Amino acid sequence: MNIFTRRAGETEATLPDSISVLSALPVPVVVLDRENRFKFANPAAEQFFQLSFSSLAPLALTDIIPPDARLLAMVDQVRSQDAPVSDHDLTLESPRLHHTGVAAHGAPLPEMPGAVVLTLLDGSKAQKLDRQLNFRGAARGASAMAAMLAHEVKNPLSGIRGAAQLLEQNANEDDRELCVLIQDEVDRIRNLVERMEMFSERPVERSVVNIHEVLDHVRRISSSGFASHLRIVENYDPSLPAVWGNRDFLVQILLNLVKNAAEAVDPQGGEIQLSTAYHHGVRIAIPGSRDRVHLPLQVSVRDNGPGIDEEVRANLWEPFVTTKRGGQGLGLAMVAKLVADQGALIECDSRPGRTIFRLSLPMPPANLPASLETRTE
Q: At how many degrees (to 10) do helices 211-223 and 247-264 cross?
């Protein structure tokens, strides 16, 4: 009896050996019997449904998604036509799931009468990752603009401020107020330029980092300051290995995310959850190389606020996009820049009552020098 038969608890004749290849596929694949109960789920499907196969086995698909979902109608069509059927742009939403833009393909399994092999492709994740990869190119443009602003604007601003200070010394009361106004506006513009300078391209030093120590540091800062009135819940995987990144940048990223969450939730009953987990993760191609970066270590910041409007989410990582009164819209743009600089990825999943920012990080290189293997600062 093969491992796939044992997982399903069926006889060898019921679940054919030919299905074993599905376990190696990077896309979610499940086998449903005639009652739509799970008889097989590969690791990618376990991650898609956020349940292990041992938890999926007693369930039917209707236990996870609503009975009027288009996906169920498609599965029924596969059985009635005894032929493959595909559907696109599906939404799978329940208290446990939230996937949009899903492409599904179902096909009958001749060795199991009434069974359907179902393949699911989460288009929403691909779109999110594609938007972030596009942002990397936009960030380089912002970097060039920041360098130009720093060089061409800051020096003249210093001259303008100095001249205003000289004029203030011999000015009458009304003119003195104008001189002070000029100095205040110069300071405001300089601060904005200095914030834009953060987008400049600089080498990033990475090392082995204990992400739980970083999260504990962020939690202590938050609890003693801007989030002192909120409940912060920690849900960590203690077996998670160290990450490969820049500790200071990770602190800055997570502080920004927690601060945004604290400002979004209701002061009464607001909750922020910090969590870590190991996932199979995504692999992204490095331009000009055959190498692919594996990002299996996931850090999440979740809040129970009202959610982010869909039109804002589409441009969430771009500079000057904000919904805050008086905000400059550089916080999340900076987060995306710091994430990209470390070879990591970040995505946002938001709906009313739940917003999650997921940060996917790499593990330390396998060929790391022994002197750096225990370094966790």
A: 40
